[in-house]
Amino acid sequence: MSTVATSQIKLTPEHARPRASVRSRLQDALPKIVLAPSFAITIVFVYGFILWTIYLSFTNSKTFPSYVITGSRAYQRLWGWTFDTDPPSSWYTSITNMGIFGFLYIFICLALGLFLAILLDQKIRGEGVLRPIYLYPMALSFIVTGVAWKWFLDPGLGLEQTLHQWGWTSFHFDWIKNKDFVIYTVVIAGVWQASGFIMAMFLAGLRGIDGEIMKAAQIDGATTFQLYRRIVIPLLRPIFLSAFIVLAHLAIKSYDLVVALTSGGPGGSAWLPSNFMYEYTFKRNEMAVGSASAVIMLMTIVAIIVPYLYSELREKPQ
Amino acid sequence: MLRKLLIGTALASGLAFAAHAEDVKEVQMLHWWTSGGEAAALNVLKQDLAKEGYAWKDVPVAGGGGDPAMVALKAMVAAGNPPTASQMLGYTALDYAAAGKMGDITAIAVKEGWDKVVPAALQKFTVYEGKWVAVPVNVHSVNWLWINKAVMDKIGGTEPKTFDDLIALLDKAKAAGVIPLALGGQNWQEATMFDSVVLSTGGPEFYKKAFNDLDDASLKSDTMKKSFDNLAKLVTYVDPNFSGRDWNLATAMVIKGDALVQVMGDWAKGEFHAANKTPGTDFLCYRFPGTDGSVVYNSDVFGMFDVSDDRKAAQAALATATLSKSFQSAFNVVKGSVPARTDVPDTDFDACGKKGIADLKAANEKGTLFGSLAQGYGAPPAIANAYKDVVTKFVHGQIKTSDEAVTELVKAIDDAR
């Protein structure tokens, strides 16, 4: 490499300098030129449409967008529905489901992913086979996951039916048909799909930990539990951040899983805010209400992610 | 270089202009009748148009069903590139007309005399401010019972004439160990059944006042409360796994004899036909008890967009062919619905179809032809969906009593108005 570099310098004659400077200027500008289209697309189609959605939420848009600002009636209706608990309004159901689903999905995926990664990291035989087995559910779309689990959890078709045929007739598992438990089946399917991917992230993190630190701790007499509790897990902190962000956005944008798995659940009891948004915008022709709910979803994400990112990234420069 | 480019552009636009001067011999059609029988039925229309020299071009929609198609259509229209026509449901055509996107085919309607042959109630969805903007393709009706005849004979049942008869019949089936009522626990199926229950409980006048005129007093009346009580009674006869089931799976339960009866629109007949069952010998079609003489309908229409002048001839040909007697008969025999004009001979239809045609004609004359609220023909989508919410929450227990259901129904409809 170094010989090539020196020979180039030698071969470049004095009079060729202006050409080289055009070229080097082009080279400097090249990243910007290459990035410009995707930057422009992001500005328009992400941030532009966020602004557009916010604008629409203050209009009285029904089937089609209307551009006359009419105030915050859409938000007032959502606010009213937030406290409609008996019988639960669709919006109340959606946001409580979001809380239950979001918390359990992220927490179980992180815990299970870490646990599996630690087990796989014990230098066991056949890791090359086991790892993809856990990882591959992530390669499926939510629709496939949803339909497969729908059949599996259906009492008349899947698990319950099979166990009844095998003779265990007292077995009863009908969560997917139960308005109070249907959201937990969404958690089960979601965790099944994502935990393998989280495991792979943690595994990569574990492999990146310096063996010397581990050996030093073992010489100091740390038990295996202490080793993981005090050294490994704290060192995995950046992986937790990445995994949390991946999971949080998967949780909030979950829409297809609910539709494929439960088609909304009994009496709409499995709705998430994204289902609410789609229903109101496209099926009920209440675009203003749909936009308002989308804005509230965005604010929720911002409220969770921004402080977390800030606290995590602030320590970087030191 | 630049000159070449200019000449090229001039030539190209010249060609385009020349092409535009002549009529486009093509119909662009957005629809979701892509499965077996429906696609075959639509082929008749394609052939009719081909005879007149018009090519048929399907506008593809990813996903297939009605909802993705409507979202795709919205995008096409917003981009100023509407198809010649689109399959539409409920208030969609009127919404587009209000937004000034629909064409005007009144001239054809006058020439063909559609005013007299298309039921007046149906014209509400095809005529906007005196202008024809859409063509009805069929009339479905939802107040039907579909019964497995073998099971019916086994339990010794007869046609139920009143709601109490129906309950007695369901009891018999229960005693015989058959699932009495096949229901899919999705909001539209539950609400479709409730349409029939309300018509049966309150009668035609009440149905119209409550579900077409959205009269407050009727909505909160004791009759409505009684209707919810009757719905609750019916729901006790379904199997525990009903929640979330698709309608055609519920129909399959009746076809296989696992269940006695399904309350469903006449599109269920298509499933019986696909399983090679004949009305009268394998299955029975009765009007929902207490609703004979009235028809609660929904209808598919072809909405005609405001297209450029060179595409208007093709659009006119499509509109005329769609409401022609031959197509109306051929299409509806396959689809399970009845023709959207009352002067089509019923010779090709089966027993249920003949009854449907006669009922539609009678209901049209008596003024007992009502839009189904569950199917979005009683009120605009915001209200229809608010209604479905209340019914499904009542069926699944989020709303516990009929008192509460009535209060919630009034509140939800007010909120969506």
UniProtKB/TrEMBL annotation, chain A:
Pfam assignment, any one: BPD_transp_1
SUPFAM superfamilies: MetI-like
BP GO annotations: transmembrane transport
InterPro entries per the UniProt record, alphabetical: ABC_transporter_permease (IPR051393), MetI-like (IPR000515), MetI-like_sf (IPR035906)
Keywords: Cell membrane, Membrane, Transmembrane, Transmembrane helix, Transport
Membrane topology: Multi-pass membrane protein
Domain of life, source organism: Bacteria
Domain ABC transmembrane type-1: 95-310
Location(s) in or outside the cell: Cell membrane
Segments passing through the bilayer: 33-55, 98-121, 133-152, 181-206, 227-252, 287-310
Keyword hit for Transmembrane: yes
Annotated CDD domains: TM_PBP2
Coiled-coil ranges per UniProt: none
Cellular component terms (Gene Ontology): plasma membrane
Family to which the UniProt record says this protein belongs: Belongs to the binding-protein-dependent transport system permease family.
Name of the featured protein: ABC transporter permease
Organism of provenance: Mesorhizobium kowhaii
TrEMBL record, chain B:
One Gene Ontology CC term in the entry: periplasmic space
Keywords: Periplasm, Signal, Sugar transport, Transport
Coiled coil: none
Superkingdom of the organism of origin: Bacteria
InterPro entries to which the protein is assigned, alphabetical: Bact_solute-bd_prot1 (IPR050490), SBP (IPR006059)
The keyword Coiled coil is assigned to this record: no
Range of residues in the leader sequence: 1-21
Localization: Periplasm
Function summary: Part of a binding-protein-dependent transport system for a sugar.
Record-stated family: Belongs to the bacterial solute-binding protein 1 family.
Name of the featured protein: Probable sugar-binding periplasmic protein
Annotated source species: Mesorhizobium kowhaii
